[in-house]
Design a protein that fits this description.
The protein is mainly alpha-helical. The chain contains 15 helices and 2 strands. It has a domain of 69 residues: Ankyrin repeat-containing domain (Serine Threonine Protein Phosphatase 5, Tetratricopeptide repeat, Alpha Horseshoe), CATH 1.25.40. 44% of the residues lie in helices and 3% in strands. β1 and β2 form a beta hairpin. The longest helix has 13 residues.
């Protein structure tokens, strides 16, 4: 009889041994389900690289969000502000800029979806419009409902010219969201290498590696977990050690194995990474084997 001592994944990538009254194959299936909320898919599929915070977190579910928590929020904004938002929502940057200069609407407002004029301008990638809004006092460090800064939003969606402008205007590059995501975490999660390079130019890689998100992952571990191999290589090129430990004392190889990102794990191993805990070794072994399909299990 096989051991019934199996490992069940808990939230945030922490695994604990548990004695289960089921087979190891069944326990692995349960393990997959428990990991699904962290982006580790069932049935052997890897974590979705473009899903930066997993299914259980809505922080980036609508990247148009980002209005300041203290700003007036109403479904019925004053007419002047409504007109500006309407231009922006239609993607009419030139019209928005003209209205901004002629009518001087307030810029510290949000709509019912927590969008601000600045976040909508960022989504358009309209640098002159962003610059004019900042000149008129748009809050550059205001966090949205989930705590994402305008710089974090621009980094995540890959608006590199806006990222450059916000940094030039003095935006804090290491300001974190409510879930601890720095703009670099967000850029790597979104696969935005251009934004990541700009942020690494603003602060040394060693400083970024001391910042952890809510899951305890530093930027290298986040890139590994999300399957962003180019981001992993970028950080290594900037001098980040492949053995760098995260908040939980785990390395990027563990994060790649947890996310079932075999291509990233292989690249890290080629750079000298080795399993440093039995749990990492177990995850690497499980990663190579497809998980059982619960729909067809007896």
């Amino acid at each position: 009889m096989k051991d019934k001592l199996c490992f069940c994944a808990l939230a945030r990538g922490v695994l604990l041994p548990a004695v289960l009254g089921i087979s190891c194959a069944q326990a692995q299936a349960v393990d997959a389900l428990s990991d699904a909320s962290d982006g580790v898919a069932v049935r052997g599929r890897p974590a979705v690289a473009g899903a930066p915070l997993g299914a259980r977190d809505a922080s980036l579910g609508d990247v148009g969000r980002g209005g300041p928590l203290t700003a007036p929020r109403s479904a019925r904004l004053p007419a002047n502000e409504q007109a500006l938002m309407a231009y922006l929502l239609r993607g009419e940057g030139a019209g928005a800029l003209k209205h901004l200069r002629s009518a001087n609407p307030r810029l510290d407002v949000t709509d019912e979806a927590w969008r601000t004029p600045l976040t909508l301008a960022i989504r358009l990638g309209d640098v002159p419009l962003v610059r004019e809004m900042l000149r008129r006092g748009a809050p550059m460090e205001a966090r949205g409902q989930e705590g994402m800064t305008p710089l974090g939003l621009a980094a995540y969606i890959g608006q590199d010219t806006v990222v450059r402008e916000l940094l030039r205007q003095g935006a804090e590059p290491m300001a974190v969201s409510q879930r601890g995501q720095t703009p670099l975490h967000l850029a790597l999660a979104g696969g935005q290498l251009g934004a990541a390079q700009l942020l690494l130019a603003a602060r040394p890689a060693a400083q970024w590696q001391r910042l952890y998100n809510a899951e305890g992952r530093h930027p290298l571990a986040e890139a590994a977990y999300r399957g962003r191999l180019d981001g992993v290589r970028l950080l290594l090129q900037h001098g980040v050690a492949v053995t760098e430990r995260d908040k939980h004392g785990l390395d990027a190889l563990h994060a790649a194995a947890l996310g079932r990102q075999a291509h990233v794990a292989d690249a890290l191993i080629a750079q000298g990474a080795r399993p440093t805990t039995p749990l990492t070794a177990l995850l690497l072994a499980q990663m190579r084997e497809p998980l059982p399909d619960l729909a067809t299990a007896p």
